[in-house]
């Protein structure tokens, strides 16, 4: 396995903390403010990084919805245990802004040369190949020339009914064990990079599928904003570990075979959704 790790074969393996401590500025990236959402709750800010390379139509809608103030004053309407937290218009009475409507399903995308894909070395039960595309957990089928985002913890998707089309007016975040069976059945639009605990720690809804019933009090949404529309002084200062570097490859290996003395048996394997994606505040 020495070829996978950017250290000499005789060097002692490092744990994740040691690897991150040795990182350089070039191992980190700053999320694009134009592709970052701030979901402002009474309990704090949830920061969402969007992935327009996978769902450009839905994300164009989401930008319009946000800038029209559509989500402001709505609420988290569903909290299903070990599954998802969903927000939107529970009553279905709020009109969509002009130019926003259902768009074609964006369950997968064509593989583009502009996408940087870092594959994992282990097999996956849901796709021929998995890894990270531009920092997002993803899968691909090279024979079909298709790629798609994966339902890992913290990923954000678009709610829909039986019709595969959707608008982006209802969004959800994965807050439980990765429901990979949803892959290629829902348009995933990004992932939470900070604040997922503000959603995952909410009381579970008592209604069907975890929806809050009339006697429960769903958490209101103060506002949703695009980071680029927020004054610089009010933005979240975050850096995300790049997934296209030798350091990230070393981090993956440190999680496949844990070097800490506590581990008596090394797994020699890692699932896509068990790979950590570190975020820091410089």
What order do the helices and strands come in, and which of them pair?
Elements: H1 16-21, E1 28-29, E2 36-41, E3 44-50, H2 56-67, E4 75-79, E5 84-88, E6 109-110, E7 117-119, E8 129-133, E9 136-141, E10 146-149, E11 155-158, E12 171-174, E13 188-194, H3 197-200, E14 221-226, E15 239-241, H4 246-256, E16 279-280
Antiparallel strand pairs: 1-15, 2-3, 2-14, 3-13, 4-5, 5-12, 6-10, 7-8, 8-9, 9-10, 11-12, 11-13, 15-16
Description:
By secondary structure, the protein is of the alpha+beta class. The protein has helices spanning 16-21, 56-67, 197-200, 246-256, and strands at residues 28-29, 36-41, 44-50, 75-79, 84-88, 109-110, 117-119, 129-133, 136-141, 146-149, 155-158, 171-174, 188-194, 221-226, 239-241, 279-280. It has one domain (32-236): Beta Barrel (Cyclophilin), CATH 2.40.100.10. The protein is 12% helix and 25% strand. It is globular and about 60 Å long. Residues 1-8 have low confidence and may be disordered.
Rounded to the nearest angstrom, the distance between the terminal CA atoms is 33 Å
CATH hierarchy class name: Mainly Beta
Rg calculated over all Cα atoms: 19 Å
Within CATH, the superfamily carries the name: Cyclophilin-like
Report the CATH topology name: Cyclophilin
How many independent structural domains?
Answer: 1
**What percent of residues are in strands?**
25-35%
How would you characterize the largest beta sheet? Answer: 8 strands, antiparallel
Structural class by SSE content = alpha+beta
Sequence stretches where pLDDT stays below 50 over 5 or more residues: 1-8
**Mean of residue pLDDT values:** 95
Helix content: 10-25%
Care to count the β-strands? 16
Coarse morphology: globular
CATH architectural designation: Beta Barrel
């Amino acid at each position: 396995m020495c070829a996978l790790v950017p250290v000499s074969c005789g060097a002692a393996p490092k744990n994740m903390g040691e690897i991150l401590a040795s990182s350089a500025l070039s191992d980190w990236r700053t999320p694009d403010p134009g592709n970052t959402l701030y979901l402002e709750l009474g309990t704090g800010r949830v920061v969402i990084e969007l992935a327009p390379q996978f769902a450009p139509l839905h994300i164009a809608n989401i930008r319009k919805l946000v800038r029209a103030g559509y989500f402001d004053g709505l609420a988290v309407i569903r909290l299903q245990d070990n599954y998802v937290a969903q927000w939107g218009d529970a009553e279905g009475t709020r009109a969509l802004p002009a130019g926003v409507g259902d768009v074609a399903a964006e369950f997968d995308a064509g593989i583009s040369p502009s996408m940087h894909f870092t594959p994992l070395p282990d097999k996956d039960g849901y796709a021929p190949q998995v890894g990270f595309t531009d920092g997002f957990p993803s899968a691909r089928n090279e024979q079909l020339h298709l790629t798609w985002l994966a339902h890992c913890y913290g990923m954000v998707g678009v709610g829909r009914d039986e019709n595969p089309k959707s608008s982006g007016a209802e969004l959800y975040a994965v807050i439980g064990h990765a429901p990979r069976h949803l892959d290629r059945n829902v348009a995933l639009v990004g992932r939470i990079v900070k604040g997922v605990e503000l959603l995952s720690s909410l009381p579970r809804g008592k209604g069907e599928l975890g929806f809050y019933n009339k006697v429960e009090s769903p958490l209101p949404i103060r506002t949703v904003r695009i980071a680029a529309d927020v004054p610089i002084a009010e933005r979240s200062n975050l850096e995300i570990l790049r997934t296209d570097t030798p350091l990230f490859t070393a981090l993956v290996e440190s999680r496949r075979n844990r070097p800490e003395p506590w581990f008596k048996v090394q797994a020699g394997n890692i699932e896509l959704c068990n790979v950590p994606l570190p975020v820091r505040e410089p």
